[in-house]
């Protein structure tokens, strides 16, 4: 499933909350934030079991090619269960609050303070998106 939001501006200092339900048997899903599908400032990619990665979150960016992956070993997702992830950012960093309250960060390699493209892909049903 792909759920895409375009032209809804997410600005530095705002809070983006995405809630959803993972399908049972989910192998991976991703939440992407950027300017369009080819220019992603944040690719947030929890993997249950995909290409040798098990129960790990991969973060990356794509601007004319993928950058260096960052791996997060805290993995508070369960197949078939609901989740809520909260994103905030500034010109330097994305801050991500995971469902268990753990915080992680990823560099804002673009350095931008506004993004208009948000999509969710994979074995997941989006239940809500809120920006405040």
TrEMBL record:
Pfam families: Gal-bind_lectin. Residues 2-132 form the Galectin domain. Keywords: Lectin. One of its GO terms (molecular function) is laminin binding. It comes from the Eukaryota. CDD domains: GLECT. GO terms for cellular component: extracellular space. Gene3D superfamilies: 2.60.120.200. The keyword ATP-binding does not apply. This is Galectin.
């Amino acid at each position: 499933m792909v759920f895409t939001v375009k032209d809804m501006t997410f600005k530095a200092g705002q809070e983006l909350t995405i809630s959803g339900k993972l399908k049972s048997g989910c192998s991976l899903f991703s939440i992407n934030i950027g300017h369009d599908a080819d220019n992603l400032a944040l690719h947030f990619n929890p993997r249950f079991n995909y290409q040798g990665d098990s129960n790990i979150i991969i973060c990356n960016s794509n601007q004319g090619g993928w950058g260096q992956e960052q791996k997060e070993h805290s993995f508070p997702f369960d197949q078939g269960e609901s989740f809520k992830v909260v994103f905030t950012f500034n010109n330097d960093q994305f801050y991500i609050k995971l469902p268990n309250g753990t915080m992680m960060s990823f560099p804002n390699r673009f350095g931008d303070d506004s993004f208009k493209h948000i999509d969710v892909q994979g074995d997941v049903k989006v239940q809500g998106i809120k920006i405040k």
